TrEMBL record, chains A, B:
Residues 45-224 form the FAD-binding PCMH-type domain. The keyword Zinc applies. The keyword Zinc applies. This is D-2-hydroxyglutarate dehydrogenase.
């Protein structure tokens, strides 16, 4: 990969040479735009882009990529900028390529259940479009109101329904990408079966824009789930959550299996706007969801619940009987992240295989407790797929700087524990800039070497989202 | 990619230098072994391997790969050798690496529903192992009694349940591969969520052993389907099959949706060992399958059937009421391939998106009818995923050579039609050697260029299954 040197042209000359490749007014350089479009939801890096480009066609994207190759200027793709790993941050004079004006749904095919989307289509927009067609787009997460399909693909977005529907990867029937060399590739052409060599589509999914930019994607839709029903169950300890998961998975096709700790619940209930599920205090809670498509299924769920109570794995529980109750139960889980943001949490998004979760969680708890007895740890996450969100809250009496300095030490221990359990240091948030120095905890040196060589194939000048995943 | 030159050592010296890397007796050079292990189910290429190596460990595979790099000798991976594209044929003095002695199931995890397999585990062996655990391995096809997991991954095997369960790709939780450089990579470590850079696992799946060899794989299992039930429906024309598929997909989670023509059915019924589904003669038949997990589901299926009859899309139909009836209905579809092999069929395994199937099929039919009115065309396939098996039967009065010469012309027209409909010239059989010269009908020149460059990253000396997917 080439190091990006200070370009020989002045900033002004560069901007002037870029401007004609876009429609009038579609290249912004004012301070507010540079600041707004230069960053994502992370706050670690100061945005410092050269300019913000808003292409309106695939051809314009290709022209910008060719321009970037010629002038050796980095490009940062920009969608809803809801990322949590600084993969969409432009901190080093890059040109941000925003897909805000390529935000249309171009086609729908009822037989194939496919929707052709421009990359700037917002996740929620696709979900609502699917609803209008009597269908369902199942990838869902907290930022679905802002995140865009191109970004979802770039990070292989997951969320709360992965246990049943998988990641974004599963829903990409085909896509068009512009590589770092400016080539337009039409990958997989929306086929279900296609055994004609390497599935390059898979390589671009989750590549965080470092190989090329998604400029169009055909997404699959699914039938609408029938009568979604949630249970919230309280357990006597964390270990009991695992046999509960196992028991329900043996009987039902779960659409979600989430968990949260008593501390997480207490914070949400303290808001006063969400009703408690039940009175019994428990150290841990599971939220599970399934399609109660028939009465038999609902009865099976109740029987499994009773079995779990008899076994001593569950102390108390409720099952939603209406859409309103379903939503209220989900709020107990979904409001956690927003609620605890008040305590300036140090967040980690980690995963191990499901069976290793109890031992892994105990190890991390022990580390934090032994070294920082005054730190409050809030656990929640997608336990059904092994993805844990570890949140350490800042004690009131500790300054922000001191807290983050101490967390940096915790970080190292957490990642060493992740490595010990053969886990992932980034389950669904991606690597970006925040995790790139820790990549070695999850990927071997040889793997990283091959990844860099693959990057060089598609982006020989290193202009596509430079500094993300790997250091420059 | 380097061209494989005649190596400087004699055959004998090469064999002697390879022998110590394997256990005693695990390098075969007798004529019978060379012939048996040098080919797959295709018959176009004469096998001519240098030797057959049977490694018993990952270290031995690595040693063989290092040896091959040193001596610039090609390696051909060999599993069940049931392939239909000559991807496992050694026709040019390669060393065949057979995984017959790496055929153990190494581990099982009930919580994660995962099985760690050596590459030589036979598909059926995994299916039966899953059954013993009360679980299910859903990838299934005609050759499951011989095909091996390593080969399934190399070709991303599909089969008859793709509409519900997807291809082999969906079931690989993680895998170990030895690259063309001899590196051992442990890809994805069986995680469900892992956003730490490029998912190289995906690149190796379907790569036909041209980047490296799978030496271990963790496969996911699924819950056992409940009360699988099949319907066979007769339709008045091909076009009616599509609204039938659409109607059933809107109401049920189908596990299969296959079709076959009257000609295909007639050949199977003429065997005399399979009962007819019903008396009514129809030009086309659909076989669909679903889990009749509750009576309500079965009633929904019957109501949908009645709706299809009312609409004129279905002329007659039956629904299985027992496991025996289920199996008998499946025989009508599954026996086709074996039955028509008597007529020396010219086979093509092609796909288009589902909605394009009717127009595509008519185009192909018209081409064959106009040019070869005396050729009998037998259609069948996995219509639910757009995968059609086109079989042209040899007229009795035509010699084999003449027939295949004429088919070569048909071939070109078929592929041009596939290209016109943005389809795949190999839906599930892979490219190997039989389709490599036609790759351009499904993949662009730019894509093929990138694929070759990716190959060079993992296999710089071009020793891994040379001449497959691309010409040397």
């Amino acid at each position: 990969m080439n190091h990006l040197r200070v370009p020989p042209m002045t900033r002004e000359a560069l901007i002037e040479s870029l401007k004609p490749l876009l429609e009038p007014g579609k290249l912004l350089t004012d301070a507010d735009s540079l600041d707004a479009y230069g960053k994502d939801w992370t706050k670690h890096f100061a945005p410092a882009p050269l300019a913000i480009a808003f292409p309106k066609s695939i051809e314009q994207v290709q022209a910008v990529v060719r321009w970037a190759n010629e002038h050796k200027v980095g490009l940062v793709p920009s969608g809803g900028r809801t990322g949590l790993s600084a993969a969409a941050v432009a901190a080093n004079g890059e040109v941000v390529v925003s897909f805000d004006y390529m935000n249309k749904i171009l086609d729908f095919n009822a037989f194939d259940r496919t929707v052709v989307c421009q990359p700037g289509v917002v996740t929620k927009q696709l979900q609502l479009f699917a609803e209008e067609q009597g269908l369902y787009y199942p990838v869902d997460f907290a930022s679905s109101g802002s995140s865009q399909i191109g970004g979802n693909i770039g990070t292989n977005a997951g969320g709360i329904k992965v246990i049943r529907y998988g990641m974004t990867r599963n829903w990409v029937a085909g896509m068009k990408v512009v590589t770092g060399k400016g080539d337009l590739l039409e990958l997989n052409k929306d086929l279900i079966k296609n055994a004609t060599g390497y599935d390059l589509r898979q390589l671009f999914i989750g590549a965080e824009g470092t190989l090329g930019f998604v400029v169009e994607a055909t997404m699959r839709l699914e039938r609408t789930p029938k009568n979604l029903t949630a249970m919230v169950l309280g357990t006597p300890d964390f270990d009991s959550i695992m046999p509960v998961l196992h028991a329900f998975q043996g009987k039902l096709d779960l659409t979600a299996f989430e968990f949260f700790s008593d501390k997480a619940l207490a914070k949400v209930l303290a808001r006063g706007d969400v009703p408690a599920a039940f009175e019994t205090d428990c150290p841990f809670y599971a939220l599970l969801e399934f399609e109660a498509s028939t009465e038999e299924v609902a009865n099976e769920a109740l029987a499994t619940f009773e079995h779990c109570v008899e076994q001593g794995w569950v102390l108390d529980g409720v099952m939603s009987q209406s859409e309103q109750q379903l939503q209220n139960l989900w709020k107990l889980r979904e409001y956690i992240s927003e609620t605890i943001s008040h305590w300036t949490p140090y967040k980690n998004d980690i995963s191990v295989t499901v069976s290793k979760v109890p031992a892994f969680l105990k190890d991390i708890d022990a580390i934090v407790e032994a070294n920082y007895p005054d730190f409050e740890v809030v656990w929640f996450g997608h336990i059904g797929d092994g993805n844990l969100h570890l949140n350490i809250l800042k004690p009131e009496n500790l300054s922000k700087d001191e807290f983050f300095a101490k967390c940096a030490t915790v970080n190292k221990w957490v990642f060493e524990t992740v490595q010990k359990y053969a886990g992932s240091i980034s389950a669904e948030h991606g690597v970006g800039m925040t995790k790139r120095d820790y990549l070695g905890y999850s990927r071997s040196e040889a793997e990283i070497g091959y990844m860099k060589a693959v990057k060089a194939v598609f982006d020989p000048n290193g202009i596509m989202n430079p500094g993300k995943i790997f250091a420059e």
